[in-house]
Amino acid sequence: MRIANLAGRAVLLTGDGAVDIHKASGGALSSDPQALFEGWQDAWPVLAALTGEASAYEDSDLRAPVPRPGQIFAIGVNYRDHAQESGIDIASLTFPMTFTKFASCLTGPFATVTLPEGWVDWEVELVVVIGKGGHHVAARDAWEHVAGYTIGQDLSERLGQWSGPAPQQFSLGKSHPGFGPTGPAVVTLDELPDPADLAIGCAVGSETMQDGRTGGMIFDVPELIAHLSSVAVLQPGDLIFTGTPAGIGATRSPSRFLADGDELVSTIEGLGTQRVTFRTA
Q: Where is the Fumarylacetoacetase-like C-terminal domain (predicted)?
């Protein structure tokens, strides 16, 4: 299933268009995308059997598929090649480097984002959507807690992020308005060739910036869920931004950051594509 937020309503995306979930379920399921994921354990069997008439839609009407998550976890330096380009010893990473993005930064997959002052960088990420909450979830049971995946960009204003003294301001530097593009849809794992190893990348215009595979994670999805839930109680509808592969702007020589008029195109195998345009105020 491919579950999306079309102008504020929960829909299934098919090859023929969008099926309105509330209408197709005869009112059994909410039209609110967030409520759908918060009630995922009851919703998914109904969704799996859902049929309905599909209607044409515009990509520009797609919004963040999980618009109001209770918690957003974000993981830093979680790909081997990104650790290498950042000069970090992988052996020193014994627990996922964790911060948060504030929910007010979320936007849709075809948004226009206003650039704040500073150095704005890209980080394409696989985003896990939690469908079943829990505390102390074992890695062997973690897949049962996943509703699906979507594409995310952990946009980062580096001057603010790195401002000191330590600890640095990761969460604030990554939470300007529009700094969390997600979508175009939440895709259930049965749609994917291998949920543990998907091609992932992004480009600025026609220039490829990141080109990797999610199999290059240091802590894979089950390990992330186990580690995070060993401290926090996971809730249905939470998001986990799982880290980014090599190729960010800050580690290039010379450094490169997003500018007025740039289009950032992000893709993950089986999940689709998002296109975000940047403008100055």
A: 72-278
